[in-house]
Amino acid sequence: MSVDLSIKFAGIKFENPFTLAASPCTDNAQMVARAFDAGWAAAVLKTTSVEEEVVELVYPMMAGLDFDDKKVIGLQNIDLISERHIDQVEKDVRELKKAYPKKVVGASIMGQKKEHWQSLVRRLEAAGVDFIECSFSCPHGMPERGMGSTIGQNAELTERTARWVKEAARRTPVSIKVTPLVPDLPHIAHAVQKSGADAITAINTVKCLIGVDIDNFVPYPTVNGKSSYGGYSGAAIKPISLRCVAEIAKAVDMPISATGGITTWRDAVEFLLCGARNLQVCTAVMKHGFRIIEDLTDGLSVYLEDKGMSSVEELVGLALPNIVEHSHLSREYKPVSKINLETCVKCDVCYIACQDGGHQAITLDEKRLPHVDEEKCVGCSMCASVCPVWECIQMVPR
Amino acid sequence: MAARQTPDTLDMAVRVASMDEVDRGLKPHQALAEAGRCIFCHDAPCVKGCPVGIDIPGFIRRMAQRNFVGAARLIRQANPLGAVCARVCPSEAQCEKGCTSAGLTEPVAIACLQRFAMDQEMARGIRQAAAAAPTGRRVAVIGAGPAGLACSLALALAGESVTMYDSAPEPGGVMRYGIPPYRLPREVLNREVDWILGAGVRFVGNTEVGRDIGMDELLSEYDAIFIGAGLGEPATPDVSGLDAPGVISAYSFLRAAGQTDPAPIAQPLGRVVVLGGGNVAIDAACTALRLGAEAVTVAYRRAREQMPAWAREVEFAQDEGVEFAFLLSPAEVLQADGKIMGVRMTRMKLAEDDASGRPRPVPSGEPDEAIGADTVLLAFGQGANESIFSALPSLARSEAGMIEVDPETGASSMAGVFAGGDAVNGGSTVVLAVSEGLRAAAGIRAYLDSSREGSECR
Fold this sequence. Notes:
The complex is a heterodimer of chains A (398) and B (458). Chain A contains twelve helices and 18 strands. By secondary structure, chain A is α/β, with parallel strands linked by helices. In chain B, strand 10 and strand 11 form a beta hairpin. Chain B has 17 helices and 14 strands. By secondary structure, chain B is an alpha/beta fold. The A-B interface holds A 69-70, 264-266, 288-289, 291-292, 294-295, 298-299, 301-303, 306, 389-390 and B 1-2, 27-29, 36, 40, 42, 58, 61-62, 65-67, 69-70, 73-74.
């Protein structure tokens, strides 16, 4: 490949931006080794804790959201942090760094109090970890103990906890993983910046209830007749995480590791354009395996080639100037719907959408072909959104 | 699960009057929908069904993400003739046969997807692969068909100096001089051939080994030789009247028809009878229709079930209006005033299986019948390439009379001489020839690595 996929994040060089997120995919060194062999540049080991932290998982812990015939467009988990405590994770770090000196090994941590956080940091640093990620953001289970998103939803707790971690980390960069479940994410990002932390990982899963078994009234995943709110991930949450990454990138000048729904190389490009320098993936791997790294790197390479760019670095943040406040959007721009009657299959779903969700600008002729009344069309683009035919309806300037 | 996508075909009236490609390919939204049908199963059976082992789930994953060029490059890594093979492979009997999606609905349309990816790549230009530093070693490739082209490319990319000889003026072999343009447009073939030549393969056309250049010369000038010379002369049946004007070998008929200007067969074809039951018979029949034949009948001595032609090709011909007559064996080409009137056919019945495992056709005892014809096309298969065996008398033959090779390396019985394609397998698919060409390229490189510097073939 003539293009360079390597990129620096928090002062560390990654051979490509693709990193396995802290998750079941990274819960032991053997799995991570296979991922490295497949081509992943980095992995954040599943969140660990001090030995006295009791971690008891429940099963089943996963439930997918299917849409039409597509499986797992979103995924709820009620998993918790790793049952493998710091004593095992520090061994994993040593083993992986020895076998893969050029790969980046990160570790995710969670603690109940200052001593826990700091002890975890010191032990990981001693083991040779490349960077530390702090989960201030798990939305289920852990907040019941005052951990996870309890911290990330409060700017003061965020700043104070991040400072503890930074105090202990002498040479290892620290990234704070934030939750989208806050009214003002830039406010939290400022708190992270004030703490002195090196980077932000955005976002953790979105608190959810994925569905209810309508025969026995128990939500999924059903654990012996009961369920609980969980963390939502996968392609379905990409629009939320993309917004969060852009908001943070516009608010603070810190390296961002994006995570939340990255599934294809196209998603990867979008996150880079919105300011991310590192890309974490989990749900797509849980569904399709470590092998998807080939699709991600190849797609990104071909895209850069097409754009005449030679490195990933060139993409970072290019979309940010194009995201403005709503009040700054042009009121003079008046697009109109253009329907290509050559390719139209006369399903008339555009007509339905315009009649019942738009401005009644589309009418049907005696052959059931849709026509746009340009006087009535306001250019909302709902018709173009629902049209099933490839590039049949386009929104064009008047 | 969504239904399998089907490409459009040319309108029938246009189709039977033109050499244009019948299959118009998937549209972009169809390609995405079809890619979405792949389950991306583990240890995918489609890959095992592909003679060159294309990473099929890998290329479909790239397509599902709209990375069509990445998909095409992945295909090309395994098959230098990926665009050709997407059109001419019997995919229903290869990759698609094992498709896991068949357990849900129907197999994924793998060949259609491959074609879409390759067409996207072609539109943009095939990226020239980087060749390794020259090794200084020289390899002669005899025959510029799929086996020779694949072997040449692999060797050239590895830094070997390759010269490809062919008796025909242009490279392509059966792909240019056999397969009709409505199945394989020549521009598709030309682009892949040009790409292969662009990798540094030298092509010497109009040069038949044993006639225009001596085999001894090749053996002394080159460090290794690959023979991908295909099959020999068409077989002729024991039928009287074959010397009548208007009795044409289906092979030379297709060869002429495949040219840009099919002038050699400008005469009115009239009623055409094709004798034979293989893919060549079908191709000749459908080509005859396109060249203005009034009616075309394929007469085969066994029943439809025993036809060597692929079922989908037979259906294709039937759709176009080709008639089929089964259990008829030719006895005599009937003539009057030096003009063909028809073919006298003997009615057959099926008896016990013969050596090929198919029921043997034997005369039924019913009276002979005549089929009216103005042109008779003979498609009885081809024998071994005897010119190669006369040039290399010590070359060992397989039981089937073809060139015998080591199944791992493609090495023949003569040191430094390798072979592949129809000359070895007796006549099979383009993709099998490609795989045998690639196999021999690996074998040749290992042989050259192990043999003494500067040594000759034998």
